[in-house]
Amino acid sequence: MKTLIKIVVFVVVLPIALVGVILHTMAGGMCANEVHAEIISPNQRYKAVIFQRDCGATTDFSTQISILKAEAKLPNKSGNIFVARGHPEHFPHPIRWLSNTELFIEKELNGSEFKAEQSWGRRDKFTVSYAAGSS
């Protein structure tokens, strides 16, 4: 019986797991980020990056925002504080640092956003605020 279990694991389970890992890796590699603006914090330690994440023809344009260390390169990941529909060129909402740890996005939230964090970070905590009327 133990031999049969080992055979099943090596013949069925292991190949399925391997295919899953390969597909997951390939899916992340199909996406790319295009930076549209970087706004440096007053103390020059961090930046807010506005970018578009493109994952192929089947996905719509999106405006995404991440807070990163000033010297960091934008990773091939989704935005860590804000994600909404629409191309960044058509995102008319100014973004500015109110302090070293406070970011203001002049956009009223209307529920169409996929992500709109109000705080972010583990060691260095950031607060993110939005225009009046935001929920």
Number of strands: 9
Strands ordered across the widest β-sheet: 1-2-3-4-7
Average pLDDT works out at 84
Residues in helix, %? 10-25%
What ranges have pLDDT less than 50 throughout 5 or more consecutive residues?
18-28
Number of helices: 1
Number of domains: 2
Order of helices and strands: HEEEEEEEEE
Q: Taking Cα atoms only, what radius of gyration do you get, to the nearest Å?
A: 20 Å
Q: How would a textbook summarize the main sheet?
A: 5 strands, antiparallel
Write the layout of secondary structure elements.
Elements: H1 2-29, E1 32-40, E2 46-54, E3 62-69, E4 82-85, E5 95-99, E6 102-105, E7 115-116, E8 119-120, E9 126-130
Parallel strand pairs: 6-9
Antiparallel strand pairs: 1-2, 2-3, 3-4, 4-7, 5-6, 8-9
Structural notes for this entry:
The protein contains one helix and nine strands; from the N terminus they run αβββββββββ. Mean pLDDT is 84; it is low at 18-28. The protein folds into two domains: 1-30; 32-130, no CATH class. The chain starts with a helix and ends in a 5-residue tail after the last strand. Strand 2 (46-54) and strand 3 form a beta hairpin. It is α+β, with helices and mostly antiparallel strands and 135 residues long. It has one helix at residues 2-29, and strands at residues 32-40, 46-54, 62-69, 82-85, 95-99, 102-105, 115-116, 119-120, 126-130.
